[in-house]
Amino acid sequence: MSGEIHPTAIISPKAKIGANVKIGPFSIIEDEVEIGDNTEISSNVKIKNFTKIGENCKIFEGAVIGNIPQHLGFKGEKTFVKIGNNVVIREYCTIHRGTSFDDGITRIEDNTYLMAYVHIAHDCKVGHDTILANNVTLAGHVKIGNYVFIGGLTPIHQFCRVGDYAMVGGASAVDKDVPPFTRASKNHVLLYGLNLVGLKRRGFTSEQIKLLKEAYRILFRKAPTLAEGIKEVEEKLPQTPEIKLLLDFVKTSKRGIAPEASKRG
Length: 265
What we know:
This protein is an alpha/beta fold. 17% of the residues lie in helices and 26% in strands. The termini are far apart.
């Protein structure tokens, strides 16, 4: 173990601590914990058993990572939290372990930013380069894609999904799936077209955006049913990687897709 470890920190000798790790006052690191090189852990952080944290992460005051799930069926089985590299976890975030009702892993991928008071429940999967703003709360088994932004004070119902490159506005209540590339908001959440600002920032071309706009129009505004919309998009539009990703997401939805705002008056 090397780095700056405050003398009041309590670190299990069984924990695996990488090079140049900083651990602040009164933080507690339990037995079955791995922390990658150059990660910084502030004061009063608790990292519990069966947690693995990657390199170059920053974990701020009061965060609790790896606590047991808030699931009445949990019986103490060995489950995990796995956090990638370059992840920022701000003040008082809570991240719970998985359960045997899923794959047993709560996972947060590289370059993700969790703002203060975010809660990540059991078995959630959060993709890379994603931002969850203050007080976003994910219920169990939620799946958040890559390059997603979710505004503050937004709760997401268990088993819901938010697709890649989507944006969810603040104080929305997400009880249905939000497709890739889209923009959603309100309580309960509605779709408001594509996340154009996010797509342009990520380098999507005018042609890619034009195709996605047409796919969105067919699927969520024109077609009488989603099944008919899927068929029309498959028949009329080029099956680019983006179109295939959108269609696959829609086809595999179990919670149902968030309604289009124009169809709600």
